[in-house]
Write a structure and sequence with these properties.
Distance between the termini: 47 Å
Order of helices and strands: EHEHEHEHEEHEEHEEHEEHEHHEHH
Strand order of the largest sheet: 3-2-1-4-5-7-11
Number of helices: 12
Helix content: 25-40%
Number of strands: 14
Radius of gyration: 19 Å
Strand content: 15-25%
Length: 341
């Protein structure tokens, strides 16, 4: 019997490249989808840098805004990891610029998976779909039963897009005969080692801190996770019998932006004088948010500490996470090794 085949969408992304490496190491054949074949060589090199042999990796050109390519990529495959999703550093002016493609792309992937007879789809969602409810105390511990209210006016288009896309996925599999099984991974603020200089939005935050681009940091923090854990949990959710129909918070710990900056400073003492140590008053962040979309993304976290319960992952998968400090320090070290800071 040959190796099982897994399709990973958005293969050039930060999480996707780690997922591909994890799958190849576990003995799967992997098909990666790309919007352009030009990135295939870079993805192969990144997977090899992660310690995996890219010889079991092939590519298909498919874009979430088009129907072309998806059926060819999925035919004959066993599983799909739908990782592709827009995550902009600067928020678009219109919510629909990002919400529509995220929702419609997810439904396009699920439809193609159904037609190809895929066993299970693992969707990469986010804690963004969980930790912004409309009512009640916001500073609390969240779990997989919680949902963000996409109607909230203070949420960024990215947060809305992750919530709407995940809700659409659950609605599809629950209402469509013959739909594949669905499992969802909801990662927090993803750090961990970069495999190349095509940096993720989360790595750009680290890079800009190290480059002195921020004079100070907002008084805000985020639930953290290492990308290596996110990848491992995608593979576990893909095959574990009890994972079908479940959401999984990929979270371990919480760090403030100031704590992250301090880790950057300690890891790269030669750049310590550039790294922001001061905290911006909340009022200034709110004022800046009117002209800076990046600042707007911080607003829901000012004065609020949202923590997450990872018990479900730890118990069902018997899984042990990397620590938040490991995630940040390994990210900083990888960016230095790549020469981007």
């Amino acid at each position: 019997m040959g190796k099982q085949i897994v399709v990973v969408t958005g293969a050039s992304g930060f999480i996707a490249k780690q997922c591909i490496a994890e799958l190849v190491k576990a003995g799967y054949q992997v098909r990666g989808t790309l919007r352009s074949a030009d990135k295939a060589g870079a993805v192969r090199a990144a997977v090899e840098r992660a310690g995996a042999d890219p010889s079991d990796l092939t590519f298909f050109v498919a874009d979430l805004t088009s129907d072309a390519g998806w059926q060819a990529a999925f035919t004959g495959a066993d599983y799909v990891l739908h990782v592709a999703s827009p995550f902009p550093l600067q928020q678009p002016r219109s919510r629909e610029e990002i919400v529509g493609p995220a929702r419609d792309g997810t439904l396009k992937v699920l439809g193609a998976a159904k037609r190809a007879g895929i066993k299970r789809v693992v969707l990469t969602s986010s804690i963004a779909a969980i930790i912004y409810p409309s009512l009640g105390e916001q500073s609390r511990v969240y779990s997989e039963i919680d949902w963000t209210d996409p109607a909230r006016s203070d949420l960024t288009p990215y947060i809305v897009s992750k919530t709407v896309a995940e809700k659409a996925a659950w609605s599809y599999v629950q209402s469509t005969a013959g739909a594949p099984q669905l499992a969802v991974i909801n990662p927090g603020f993803v750090q961990g080692p970069a495999l190349d200089d095509d940096l993720s939005t989360s790595h750009e935050v680290i890079r800009m801190m190290a480059k002195g681009k921020y004079p100070a940091v907002p008084k805000a923090g985020y639930p953290m996770v290492d990308v290596r854990d996110v990848a491992a949990l995608h593979v576990k959710a893909m095959v574990h019998p009890a994972a079908a129909g479940q959401r999984f918070l990929a979270i371990n710990g919480y760090l403030t932006l100031r704590e992250i900056a301090e880790m950057v400073s300690r890891t790269l003492p030669d750049l310590a004088r550039r790294v922001p140590t001061r905290v911006v008053p909340d009022m200034i962040v709110r004022l800046v948010s009117y002209i800076d979309g990046g600042a707007k993304s911080v607003l829901p976290h000012l004065g609020i500490k949202r923590r997450c319960d990872n018990r479900k992952v730890r118990e069902l998968f018997e899984y042990t996470f990397h620590s938040p400090s490991e995630a940040v320090v390994s990210a900083v070290q990888s960016l230095r090794a790549l020469g981007v800071i």
